[in-house]
Amino acid sequence: MRICVYGAASPTIDENYKEITFNLGKLMVKRGHSLVFGGGGNGLMGAVAQGVKSGNGHIIGVIPKFFDNENIEAICNFCDQLIEPDTMRERKQIMEDTADAFIVVPGGIGTYEEFFEILTLKQLCRHTKPIAVYNINGYYDSLFTVMNEAISKNFIKKNCLDLFKLTDNVDELFDYIENDKLSYTVKDLKEG
Q1: What is the tens place of the pLDDT at every residue in 110-147?
Q2: Sign of the CA dihedral with 9 first, then 140, 132, and 118 last
């Protein structure tokens, strides 16, 4: 299975997050999976790629040309395939189309945006791919407090929470990714 990992690119992240994400990459390979990711060489993106590489796994990086041209961030230099689209929108589309499943590790604005886009697309039945949020060190606790508040006020339907798995347990995360068979219609999600 090709798993897309969304996560932070910052080089200043606490080493504990990097170590856990590196181990996630190692476990991906051990369980027979390959990596699709944003092509960054630093932060949690770099850490997961290093973990996959350490297990001799296959890596597809997708990073817009302007990242290199404008020296925006370090690019992972050991991808088996590096795809360089022109725009961020194209980057996300390539990752979405290439992946069989998605894992969200801690990140910033870009990671939030990627998670909510892929979740929205699943809610609208544009895909049925598994989505897991790896809640390392409780990083996403506050975000899900906000989501539950929106549910309590009827801005989000409660069954939207069934479209992904939030967990801090890596074995639980992979069990979900490898076995998710949930299917809903848009009507179920909008009225349920």
Answers
A1: 999 999 999 999 998 899 999 999 999 999 999 999 99
A2: negative
